[in-house]
Amino acid sequence: MTDLQIGILGLVILLILIILGMRVAYAVTIVGALGVIMIQGWSPGTKFIGYLPSSEVGSYTYSAIPLFVLMGYFTYYAGIADDLFKTARAWIQHIRGGLPIATVIASAGFATVSGASTASTSVLGKIAIPQMLNSGVDKKLAAGVVAMGGCLAALIPPSTIMIVYGILTEQSISAMLIAGIIPGVVTVLIYILMIYVRARMNPNTAPVTKAASWKERFKSLKNTYAMLVLVALVIGGIYFGFFTPTEAAGIGAIGALIIALVLRKLSKNDFKTALLETTKTTAMIFLIMVGISIFIRFLALAGVNTAISNFVVSLPISPLAIIIVMLVFYLILGMFMDAISMMMLTLPIFFPVVMELGFHPIWFGILVVKMTEIGLVSPPVGLNCFVVRSVAPKIPLGQIFIGVLPFIAAEIVVVAILILMPELVTFLPEMLSKG
């Protein structure tokens, strides 16, 4: 067999293993390791496989992942999400669709201090869903806005998924994180517009509640100041070049810890739990990344990337059509796989094609992140929908999936806007590079 034939056979075996239910981390490691050994031979292949894990995850850049995850857990125990929802509710609960809109705003705010979508969904679900249901908000809308609002953590910095994309594609992590700001704002505005229109068309979906007094509104702001300073320090520090993403992650984690201690909301058990959960999350991500690194080396040795890139570029269709086909593939794949696994599995094949076609790598990265957001709520897997089900067991899973459909439509609108106006993605990164 030629090296290319071995590579194609490896892809087929990988797909079979995944379909049979094997975890992606194990599947790519097994296929990648066997492929490297078949091409390079036993001694060189095993030496490479033995050396790779420590050299891969021992990188300084990778340390940003556990630090940002830790930052998210500290802010969770500090009650930041609860404070954000109370503030948003106080200011806009009196307008049509006020509580669901407040949930979107709180989700976006919490996303700035938490890079994990499922964690954001769980936290906001426990806080917002009971209050929305008690105020008469439709169950499907309440579940949908929490499930989709949690996805904002994948797009709004600091985002673990965007850090992983930057590492895999060797792009600037600072540029990748900053690029998510404007698309994040656009997404929030589209969500708000969609909720407002729905509430206008059918007032029963989100009844108006009594307006809070101006005293209550300003009082609600007091516990958000520290978080705003923290976010400005972390994101502003990255944008203006004061910190690298890793340094910003360390400052964010320490800052979140200080906030939690000052507010006296972090117990010893909470502190231990935050460290333990951060370790578990980081170990899962690193395990996948090690496996994918071996698999990427296998594809490169076999020449699969080059063969696929040459084939796709030679197709008699427009480059933009190829990008759209890739996004549709992500949409389908997202129904069955988690975001990080899906991205790690596809980027070694897709990214060289994107570069060959001449598209901006950061722009493509944001589109990929948007598709992973949709995957997080798409049936039958839809991880965020199951998280909502766990925190709101009285809402049937079927109603949760129905509730996210309008938000999926809104996401597709945002993706279309970003395709038509790539400057919305590239503007801030280009300003960053000029600075």
Task: List the SSEs and their pairings.
Elements: H1 3-19, H2 24-40, H3 42-57, H4 64-77, H5 80-92, H6 98-111, H7 117-134, H8 139-150, H9 160-169, H10 173-179, H11 181-201, H12 214-220, H13 225-239, H14 245-262, H15 268-302, H16 304-313, H17 319-333, H18 339-357, H19 361-375, H20 383-391, H21 397-420, H22 423-434
Helix pairs in contact: 1-2, 1-15, 2-3, 2-15, 3-15, 4-14, 4-15, 5-6, 5-12, 6-7, 6-8, 6-11, 7-8, 7-20, 8-20, 8-21, 9-18, 9-19, 10-22, 11-21, 13-14, 15-18, 16-18, 17-18, 17-19, 18-19, 19-21, 20-21
Give the key terms:
22 helices, 78% helix, 435 residues, mainly alpha, single chain
How far apart lie the N and C ends? 51 Å
The strand count comes to 0
Structural class: mainly alpha
- Write down the Rg: 22 Å
Mean pLDDT, all residues: 86
Q: Give the overall form.
A: globular
- Estimate the helix proportion, in percent: over 70%
Order of helices and strands: HHHHHHHHHHHHHHHHHHHHHH
Oligomer: single chain
Biggest sheet overview? none
- Number of helical segments? 22
The proportion of residues in beta strands is under 5%
Low-confidence stretches: none
Description:
There is one protein chain. The longest helix has 35 residues, at 268-302. The model has no long low-confidence stretch (mean pLDDT 86). The radius of gyration is 22 Å and the shape is globular. The chain is built from 22 helices and no strands. The chain has helices spanning 3-19, 24-40, 42-57, 64-77, 80-92, 98-111, 117-134, 139-150, 160-169, 173-179, 181-201, 214-220, 225-239, 245-262, 268-302, 304-313, 319-333, 339-357, 361-375, 383-391, 397-420, 423-434. It is mostly helical and 435 residues long. Helix 10 (173-179) crosses helix 22.
